[in-house]
């Protein structure tokens, strides 16, 4: 996995009103956050940029801007942190490099043991036949 350094100066936060029930403060306080992150203009490594732009994620626009709406919490600051965490998770998913699986063969002794155990099991089953006197 490549080291990721997210520069928070490249992230734009816009305070918006949260959806849903909110009681008396619903029309007065803007607690939700729209987080905008421009992938092509960011300081991320080029490999991660290309992987992010190739991702089929509805939060990434056609111009390469990540838009995350955070409104889980009641405070603006906690929603900001939540949005940043989700952005870091998205970048980490793009930076993840799976380990390459190398094909291996079973050893000769393991193959021999397998066949011998099958033969032995078959012999046991052969002796289960009907008893004749």
Automatic annotation (TrEMBL):
Signal peptide: none annotated. The keyword Hydrolase applies. PANTHER family: PEPTIDYL-TRNA HYDROLASE ARFB. It comes from Candidatus Dechloromonas phosphorivorans. Keywords: Hydrolase. GO terms for molecular function: peptidyl-tRNA hydrolase activity; ribosome binding; translation release factor activity. This is Aminoacyl-tRNA hydrolase. Pfam families: RF-1. GO terms for biological process: rescue of stalled ribosome. Belongs to the prokaryotic/mitochondrial release factor family. It is an enzyme of class 3 (hydrolase). Its EC number is 3.1.1.29. Residues 6-132 form the Prokaryotic-type class I peptide chain release factors domain. Residues 101-133 are annotated as: Disordered. The keyword Cytoplasm does not apply.
């Amino acid at each position: 996995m490549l080291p990721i350094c997210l520069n928070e100066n490249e992230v734009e936060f816009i305070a918006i009103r949260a959806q849903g029930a909110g009681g008396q403060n619903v029309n007065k306080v803007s607690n939700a956050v729209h987080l905008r992150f421009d992938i092509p203009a960011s300081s991320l490594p080029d490999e991660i940029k290309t992987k992010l732009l190739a991702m089929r994620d509805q939060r990434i626009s056609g111009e390469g801007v990540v838009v995350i709406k955070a409104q889980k919490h009641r405070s603006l600051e906690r929603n900001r942190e939540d949005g940043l965490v989700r952005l870091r998770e998205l970048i980490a998913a793009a930076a993840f490099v799976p380990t390459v699986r190398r094909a291996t063969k079973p050893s000769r002794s393991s193959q021999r043991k397998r066949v011998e155990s099958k033969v032995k099991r078959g012999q046991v089953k052969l002796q289960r036949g009907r008893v004749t006197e």
